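re: the backbone from monday

yeah here it is again, tokenized this time
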């Protein structure tokens, strides 16, 4: 694989990562607004971008595997700036993803608490229901 092709793949990867970062920002907004349909749509779009990133990674991996060590080192030193840019975008996305995960876990625990309190409330209300009339065992006329 030639240097130009590797550079093209890395450039495409940076573009896709920027698109993914934009989708992450939209995801954060959708979570904050509790907009489930929008969140589902964003997650579907993210999945398509991630599939493209995986495809690019596989293509890059195959191409680099065909290079000898000397060529690999030379190309890596020339494209170091692009590699650093890719890493910074990935770290940014990971941070945003972790924040979203924390928000969703907090929301999940709040919902779980609401469910538990509702269940406990129902159990307590059963004790205040109308009790069945107890028949006297002494006389059958009461």
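seq for it, each position gets an aa:
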């Amino acid at each position: 694989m030639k240097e130009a092709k590797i550079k093209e793949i890395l450039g495409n990867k940076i573009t896709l990562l920027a698109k993914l970062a934009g989708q992450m920002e939209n995801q954060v907004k959708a979570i904050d607004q509790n907009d489930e349909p929008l969140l589902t749509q964003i997650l579907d779009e993210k999945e398509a971008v991630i599939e493209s990133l995986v495809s690019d990674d596989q293509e890059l991996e195959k191409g680099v595997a065909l290079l000898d060590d000397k060529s690999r080192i030379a190309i890596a030193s020339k494209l170091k700036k692009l590699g650093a840019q890719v890493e910074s975008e990935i770290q940014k996305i990971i941070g945003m993803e972790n924040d979203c995960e924390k928000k969703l876990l907090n929301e999940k625990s709040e919902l779980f608490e609401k469910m538990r309190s509702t269940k406990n409330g129902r159990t307590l209300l059963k004790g205040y229901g109308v009790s069945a009339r107890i028949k006297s065992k002494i006389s059958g006329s009461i």
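Residues 80-126 form the longest helix (47 residues). Residues 3-104 form a domain with the Methane Monooxygenase Hydroxylase; Chain G, domain 1 fold (CATH 1.20.58).
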